[in-house]
Task: inverse folding
């Protein structure tokens, strides 16, 4: 009966689903997934049952050609060649329009599922990809921290460090997820999340490590890591094998399909971190065609992701935050591109998001040093909105190095 | 039984390593250990931490000394031991006109437009892309410096493997993480090399002198934007980092102290690779710093910082965590600080105390450190008995994949270290590194010769096919299946320069001029290593390899698994019978050993 009930209701919340599973577990044989579900319950209780997914657009996305202020003549004066005419834009109101390639974003915005936060940045901006990205990763502009803000967030909201709470899909671990207590599950291709072994070695290498009765706590820690590597790699590969979605994510899914696969498989993860990789948005030359293409891929992937969440009945539990390490300069350069800049738009997407504009678009005429947009919103205010407003973390002032306030982004 | 005894006799020193006498030693006790507690295991521990580990012969040599003699030989090393180490061989890529190197490409082209010249290259008087040679030169230096920095890193890796004074290298590695300067900001391998040499020369000397030298070092001055710290408009970046990260730690000074210190450092700058003080830009007015008044300059600020007890505690605790254990009590931190301050900040004195202490040999200290990626690679090579770092796998790529690239620390705070070195994926990756050493990839592509960027390769191809620069530098739709606007392909554009072409030419010129990294593979002969020990069975062979390569032994299940694996792969448990063909099987079993969690411990 219960089985029927939860088959018939795709929009069942995660918590109800877990209750359903627990019931099943008591009545029938305990399925192997039960332990997972219990972990999931524990982890999600720690974070209000909500999941935060962060998408990094690496390379410095040109925000002005993403959300175009067609209502401001200064935009066209500063960008006589690469400015996008209003009649080509996906106009959303009398001041703004999305880049023509962004059908997905336009739909999400018009459905009220997308918040655009304007003018995000910080004091004394760095124009180095590396430096500025490190500032965003640590939430410590013009400073440094050995741990990432997402890693520290996990430490604060899930201090008992349930395994697999923090997932980073990447070739290398992002500084953002570096954590004192958690072991982030970092992998790239699920099919390759395994040891590279010669055929003869496979069984020996994949042997489950012994349970360490060691008084050496570092050894115990490493045995945990080894088990987590074995467990997580099996889980991830398993989830990926089972994942079969009819939803179209376009050309590049930005690893968001993997997020859905893990969510659907009951991975007890509260925080996911993915990226449009390899400095892709570093558009110094002939940027319009390339930039439009990058935005199309991003927009398709994000729209596909939200649809896919609906399909698995998790759309109410997940919010997606999108950022880039900086925007580009206001005037175009001589190569029909743009150079490294400062303030930029951020996006928050999800079923529970109250769509609309937040923050203030910086002036296009009174520019900051180096022909840049002067930031109007400290990016940590958006972080704070996610940690407190979405995940229900009571106090993230210590985490973010101050009280930046929050936007009322969620219904 | 007889066979076992014979093996024990042949490797008696190693057998001692499996026992554990250190339980006698006391945690937090800085008194020196007794001569009677000194043995193969303690000597091996010392060499692991004060250096990068070593072969059984090297450990035996240390074990034969008294603890004090052993520690002295490492801490008060003799540089004449290292006649075999050659100085860095420059490729000869730097040219006079490159200085002062502008902060960015736009700044370079702006300078060229205004003055008709930049980077030693004049603007063409006529024609299309008059600034192109300037832009090419800009990218040439960026790329060449990256490639040459990778050669400096290789040169350093070779020293770490081959030096007879391993503590000198280990200490330099500590300071490199402490004064965490990144190539991507400094963009000049010469400054990075000079700073490394500073660490080599001063690493175990006075911390105060080192702090002054680093504060006046062009690499650091450039990294922390000293050039913009001038009288009337002080930039606090430099002063803040000196206090927050290099000496006292956050919370031990006020924002006023930072502002006042920044004033004292105004005018400190560099020209090319030399430190200069620009007197016109120096603010010599009165300052109030940490409760003192005076018209301080930078050196006086550093001396006032050194007077603070918290400075000695901060730096000695950090040194302790690097060499001994992650956790230490505040009381022990204070005690270490007192030792360092009483010794006028002489680092060697602190190290001597640490390496001799009962605490260093106590149970929580032994075998409890997770090796950094550089430590993992270097100690693997040392334990294999290699004389340098092999060219395959690439040292920088391999350690980078494990999240530590020399000259590219992630932030100004350096590498977090400890448990943050490890993720599930990275543990698997460490096993993959061992495999690449023991079974070098025959398809290896040298990253210093073959450009890894598909974009650059595509531009290169199109230029060679005879396309004009505009067409050849269209953002390609490679890997994306996109469609390109045809109208843009039709004609060569009029423009002052083309950045993408400059980037391609920069790589091309850099690869031509930077010397290649030698790409030899490791010469490994495990069969000989085993046969020299008169080992007869697979059981003995596995025991020998475990003792030689691991400081912390795996459990009995893993040991049995390894023995079974080796016996099965050889088709016999008799080593003598298998001696003519056992190399591959021994390498496989060593790969299994190096993939174990315990191999990551030092």
Result:
């Amino acid at each position: 009966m219960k089985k029927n009930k939860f088959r018939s209701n795709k929009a069942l919340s995660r918590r109800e689903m877990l209750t359903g599973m627990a019931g099943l577990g008591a009545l029938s044989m305990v399925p192997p997934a039960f332990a997972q579900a219990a972990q999931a319950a524990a982890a999600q209780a720690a974070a209000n049952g909500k999941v935060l997914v962060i998408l990094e657009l690496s390379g410095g996305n040109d925000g002005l050609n993403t959300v175009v202020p067609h209502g401001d003549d200064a935009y066209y004066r500063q960008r006589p060649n690469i400015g996008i005419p209003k009649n080509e834009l996906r106009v959303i109101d009398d001041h703004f329009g999305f880049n023509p390639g962004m059908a997905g974003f336009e739909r999400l915005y018009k459905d009220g599922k997308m918040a655009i936060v304007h003018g995000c940045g910080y004091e004394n901006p760095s124009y180095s990809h590396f430096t500025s990205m490190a500032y965003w990763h640590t939430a410590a502009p013009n400073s440094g921290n050995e741990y990432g803000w997402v890693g520290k967030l996990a430490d604060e909201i899930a201090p008992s460090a349930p395994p697999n709470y923090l997932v980073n899909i990447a070739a290398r671990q992002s500084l953002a997820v570096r954590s004192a207590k958690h072991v982030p599950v970092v992998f790239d291709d699920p099919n390759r999340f395994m040891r590279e072994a010669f055929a003869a070695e496979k069984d020996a290498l994949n042997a489950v490590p012994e349970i360490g009765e060691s008084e050496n706590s570092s050894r115990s820690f490493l045995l945990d890591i080894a088990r987590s590597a074995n467990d997580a790699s099996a889980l991830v590969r398993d989830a990926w094998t089972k994942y079969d979605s009819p939803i179209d994510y376009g050309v590049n899914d930005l690893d968001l399909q993997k997020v859905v696969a893990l969510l659907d498989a009951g991975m007890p993860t509260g925080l996911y971190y993915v990226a449009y990789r390899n400095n892709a948005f570093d558009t110094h030359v002939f940027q319009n065609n390339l930039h439009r293409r990058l935005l199309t891929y991003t927009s398709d992937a994000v729209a596909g992701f939200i649809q896919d969440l609906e399909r698995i009945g998790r759309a109410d539990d997940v919010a997606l935050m999108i950022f880039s390490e900086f925007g580009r300069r206001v005037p175009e350069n001589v190569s029909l591109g743009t150079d490294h800049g400062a303030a930029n738009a951020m996006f928050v997407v999800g079923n529970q998001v109250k769509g609309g504009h937040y923050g203030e678009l910086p002036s296009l005429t009174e520019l900051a040093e180096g022909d840049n947009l002067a930031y109007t919103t400290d990016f940590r205010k958006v972080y704070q909105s996610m940690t407190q407003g979405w995940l229900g973390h009571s106090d993230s002032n210590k985490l973010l190095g101050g009280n930046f306030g929050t936007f009322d982004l969620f219904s | 039984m007889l066979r076992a005894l014979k093996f024990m006799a042949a490797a008696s020193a190693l057998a001692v390593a499996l026992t554990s006498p250190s339980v006698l030693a006391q945690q937090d006790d800085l008194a020196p250990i007794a001569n009677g507690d000194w043995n193969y295991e303690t000597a091996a521990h010392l060499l692991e931490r004060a250096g990068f580990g070593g072969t059984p012969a090297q450990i035996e040599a240390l074990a034969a000394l008294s603890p004090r003699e052993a520690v002295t030989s490492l801490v008060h090393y003799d540089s004449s031991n290292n006649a075999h180490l050659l100085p860095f061989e420059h490729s000869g890529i730097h040219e006079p006109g490159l200085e002062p190197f502008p902060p960015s490409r736009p700044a370079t082209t702006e300078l060229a437009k205004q003055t008709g010249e930049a980077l030693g290259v004049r603007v063409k008087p006529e024609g299309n892309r008059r600034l192109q040679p300037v832009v090419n030169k800009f990218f040439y230096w960026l790329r060449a410096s990256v490639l040459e920095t990778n050669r400096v890193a290789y040169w350093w890796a070779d020293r770490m493997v081959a030096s007879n004074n391993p503590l000198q290298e280990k200490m330099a590695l500590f300071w490199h993480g402490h004064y965490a300067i990144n190539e991507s900001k400094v963009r000049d391998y010469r400054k990075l090399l000079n700073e490394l040499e500073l660490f080599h020369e001063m690493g175990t000397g006075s911390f105060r002198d080192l702090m002054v030298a680093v504060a006046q070092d062009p690499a650091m001055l450039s990294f922390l934007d000293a050039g913009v710290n001038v009288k009337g408009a002080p930039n606090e970046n430099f002063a803040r980092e000196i206090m927050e990260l290099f000496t006292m730690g956050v919370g031990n000074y006020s924002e006023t102290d930072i502002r006042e210190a920044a004033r004292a450092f105004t005018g400190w700058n560099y020209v090319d690779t030399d430190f200069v003080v620009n007197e016109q830009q120096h603010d010599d007015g009165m300052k109030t710093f940490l409760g003192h008044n005076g018209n301080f300059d930078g050196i006086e600020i550093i001396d006032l910082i050194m007077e603070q007890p918290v400075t000695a505690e901060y730096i000695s605790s950090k040194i302790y965590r690097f060499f001994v254990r992650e956790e230490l009590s505040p009381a022990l931190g204070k005690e270490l600080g007192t030792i360092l301050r009483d010794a006028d900040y002489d680092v060697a004195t602190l190290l001597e105390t640490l390496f001799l202490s009962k605490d260093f040999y106590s149970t929580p200290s032994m075998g409890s450190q997770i090796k950094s990626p550089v430590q993992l690679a270097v100690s693997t090579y040392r334990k294999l008995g290699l004389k340098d770092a092999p060219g395959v796998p690439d040292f920088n790529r391999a350690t980078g994949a494990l999240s530590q690239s020399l000259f590219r620390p992630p932030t100004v705070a350096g590498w977090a270290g400890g448990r943050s070195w490890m993720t599930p994926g990275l543990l698997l990756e460490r096993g993959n590194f061992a495999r690449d050493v023991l079974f070098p990839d025959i398809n290896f592509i040298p990253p210093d010769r073959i450009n890894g960027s598909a974009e650059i390769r595509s531009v290169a191809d199109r230029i060679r096919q005879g396309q004009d620069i505009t067409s050849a530098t269209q953002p390609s739709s490679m890997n994306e299946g996109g469609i390109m606007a045809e109208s843009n392909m039709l004609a060569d554009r009029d423009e002052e320069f083309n950045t993408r072409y400059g980037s391609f030419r920069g790589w091309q010129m850099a690869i031509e001029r930077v010397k290649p990294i030698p790409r030899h593979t490791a010469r490994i002969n495990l069969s000989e290593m085993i046969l020299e020990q008169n080992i007869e069975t697979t059981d003995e062979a596995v025991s020998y390899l475990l003792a030689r390569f691991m400081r912390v032994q795996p459990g009995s299940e893993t040991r049995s698994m390894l023995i079974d694996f080796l016996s099965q792969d050889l088709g016999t448990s008799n080593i003598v019978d298998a001696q003519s063909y056992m190399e591959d099987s021994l390498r496989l079993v060593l790969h299994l050993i190096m993939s174990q969690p315990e191999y990551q411990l030092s």
Summary: Chain A has one domain: 48-188+247-400. Chain A is about 35% helix and 15% strand. The longest helix of chain A spans residues 217-242.
